Amino acid sequence: MKAWQVERVLKRDAFGRVEVLVGDGDRRLTRRVACGGRLPFSGVLARFFASREQRALARLEGLEGVPRGVVDEVAAATPGEDGRAPERGHVFLREWIEGVALPRATELPADFFDLLDDLVGELHARGVCHNDLHKEPNVLVSLDGRPALIDFQLASVHPGGGAIFRSRSSEDDRHVHKHRSRYTCEGRGPAEAGERGRGRGKKRRPLSFVWRRLGKPLYLLVTRGLLKTRDGAEEFRPSAGPWPVWTEAVGREASN
Predict the structure, then answer these.
(1) All structural domains of the chain
(2) Averaged confidence pLDDT in the chain
(3) From CA 66, how far away is CA 109, in angstroms rounded?
């Protein structure tokens, strides 16, 4: 039987926390504990978001660059930082992907954003929209330089496509292109790396504009101001840098 312990807490917000568990042989798992907080009905919402992540990852099973869901009763019952085991049904385990968050990467291959476009396209081909790609830390640079995606709690599954799917997938593409542009503009990256992208020229959708102007400030006021919680996933690379060094392209052969 594996022995697991909490190595560190990656993220804490009004809907629970995300922890890294370490076990025998330094094997790691990521555990989302949907415990809620002081916000009314936050526990119900936390479990709802966790179920969204489970459903999306099940749909993406086997896709390189996306963590797999894991079943391990011992890891699920491992006591948290408070010494208490999470309640049954409030825990979701997923594979740990070795890498570094995009804002902390010191090197990027020349085709990184092309590969990221491909990966997001694979999500959409399976009817899944990430819906949270505006956050740089949700994009990882894996050990071989290829992109990976994490934090699917806002992801949505659209088996039949439709207008909502097209709108949300367009937003995913736009956010990827926004990161591409930011990392390659003003001579920060190879010129050819900034000229492509599925989201090139796409404008912010009306609902996205409303969220950015009204919804997000209210969310931050409640979670950070009133509840004194920290998202932990709002980190971004300062405009002053330092910016990553660009290395040789790694190619698409092993990205699918």
Answers:
(1) 5-95 (3.30.200.20), 99-247 (1.10.510.10)
(2) 85
(3) 19
DSSP state of 124: H
Coil/strand/helix, residue 154? coil
Q: Show the tokens assigned to 65.
A: 């660059």
Q: Express each pLDDT in 193-224 by its tens digit.
A: 766 766 565 566 665 556 556 655 665 555 45
Neighbours of 239 (CB within 10 A): 8
- How far apart (Å, rounded) are the C-alpha atoms in residues 94 and 32? 8
Q: What is the pLDDT of residues 218-241, one digit of tens each?
A: 655 554 554 444 544 467 899 888
The tokens describing 26, both together, are 């330094």
C-alpha radius of gyration, the chain, whole number: 18
Six-digit token pair at 206?
């009306």
CA distance linking residue 237 with residue 184, whole number of Å: 13
